[in-house]
Amino acid sequence: MKKIIFLLLCTWLLTGHITKINARTGVNEKIFSLLNLDYPGLEQVKALYQAQKKEEAAQALLNYYRERKHIHHPDINLENIQLSPLDKIRADNAMQHIFYGQDGYEPTFYGKDINWKYWPIKDNEIRWMLHRHKWFIPMGYAYRVNKDEKYAKEWIFQYMDWIKKNPLLEIPKEEYEILDNSSLQDETENNRFAWRPLEVSERLQGQLIQFLLFLPAQSFTPDFLTEFLWNYHRHATFLSKNYSEQGNHLLFEAQRMFYAGTFFPEFKEASEWRKSGIDILNHGILQQVYPDGGQYELDPHYHLATINIFYSALNMGTVNGFQKEFPQNYIDTIERMIMFYANICFPDYSNPCFSDALLTGKQYTINCYKKWSALFPDNQVIRYFATEGKEGTLPDYLSKGFTTSGFFIFRNSWGKNATQMVVKAGPKGEWHCQPDNGTFELWFNGKNLFPDSGSYVFAGDEEVMKLRNWFRSTSVHNTLMLNNQTIEATESVTKLWKPEGKTQILVTENPSYKDLRHRRSVFFVDNSFFVIVDEAIGKTKGTVNLHYQLCEGRIKLDTQNMSLTTVLKDKSNVKLQCFGPKGMKVVEEEGWYSIAYRQRAKRPAISFNVEKKDDKPVRYITIIYPFKDKNGENKFDIRFKNKSFNEKGLEVEVKVNGKSHILGYKL
Questions:
Q1: Catalytic residue, candidates 110, 243, 302, 349
Q2: pTM for the complete prediction?
Q3: pLDDT score of 20 more than 80
Q4: Which of 102, 616, 625, 649 is 20 to 30 A from 594, comparing alpha carbons?
């Protein structure tokens, strides 16, 4: 494939690549009927148009936009355009029709005559990302920084080429969200990628920045302006009638619709677009955010994205005089969401990769805190994270539970050398949530020792979906299952949360299968190690599997004592030992984890398996003991003091290196 693309590209370069744009394509007169020509500043445009001087009217309209000062876009500073080396590469590649789309794939050559239907690998993300035109803004940066008209000329060519080759067709709305095996063919099949509402909204947002970047260009003619505005209006009209049903897609679309109506108030429908976006956002923040601040997809990456959706709309409204459209509860909820995120992340600003989460870069996260701090100047915790501890203060607590969302954080410090466990055990999440209730990540002394599996890919053909389903399955998370079958229900109930004292306790229970529920009790002992009691309760018989997934690196597995110890070079290691019923077996399994799209790393994974032959509960006790000295010898002994399962309580005795601890609770 790469060789073919290379040969095509060489042929193209040898024959010469000359972008042809008609010097005059003619004014798209439709635009004047879409604009409110009585809008302040358009007096000359109206007069010229009524005098049948449409070319002069288009020129006056272009002059108006080039001189317009009263509308502000807070997401770009035109006085300080920066062109990063990566953006320069993407812009120059785009000049050759080598387009950047999804981070998990190499930029792809789409032909001298751009083939917007090209699908090199049957991953839906490739098709969707192509229609987001993610290289257009880097081309704009390159134009502004280098003052080279070729970037503007090529952008206009590609913009118009896309319009010509991607007509808007009417298809069943549900086709936009079919992940594989759509029955549509040819143009209609392309339509479900090119005109999926989320991609339409992405273009609505991106084209505002493109408009600002390229507006001074010589190639940005009055004729092109009318085509741009007509196409933009078509996008906004389509989206206003085809919002996604729910989830973060709906919020993204609403935020971008609000952007459209705010940035282009000259359109007759602008106020309707703004109201549509605001109404959805004001409703969505109540529907999608729990009272404790967690977003209902229970995915840290999408939680962060949702914060920024709500923040961006509010910020755009604030700088353009529409802040009053957002009630105080909306603003307060954003602050709760930020505090939720600050609590679940680790000392290096990294987020747990629960569900479909990707790992967010540190600098990006700090930049988010800086924006949020400007909105909430009195919040000293947000200020602390915005300044990397130079200003502000840390929370006056350590461990924290978000009992509605089902996220629980044990920590002995906020510093880099902290011991911190984040447990996910909550309600039924929405689309991006995985069937992983009870899973956790554990940070110790600067390292994540138990990273969650992530997602790797999202949607596509059978091969892609096979990969997605592997990373989503319960068996690749730190939790319990039956017969290695993905859990049927994710509705964990918090039985007990005790975040203070010498021993901190979490007890949750999930109705994982019909007639088999999973109770997990987590004890954080002496601010240094963890004891986890797992109990499989119910009539169902079969093999109970208790899975653990570790970080990259070598382990020593002791099958006789049912223990493993990591052998890592840095001073962050862990010993895990499981005590279970007679006949328990430990099995090494395939282990991978992913922190970025189509990037994965191999890691050790094990399962402790017990045959459940009757109605009696299967009970495990696991000790997880982080330590710094890789040569350290740690000896454990654990036993149940209550010999059988008790609905109302638990008591176990744990001996660690000769020291005894009695752990338990009463409900």
A1: 302
A2: 0.91
A3: no
A4: 625
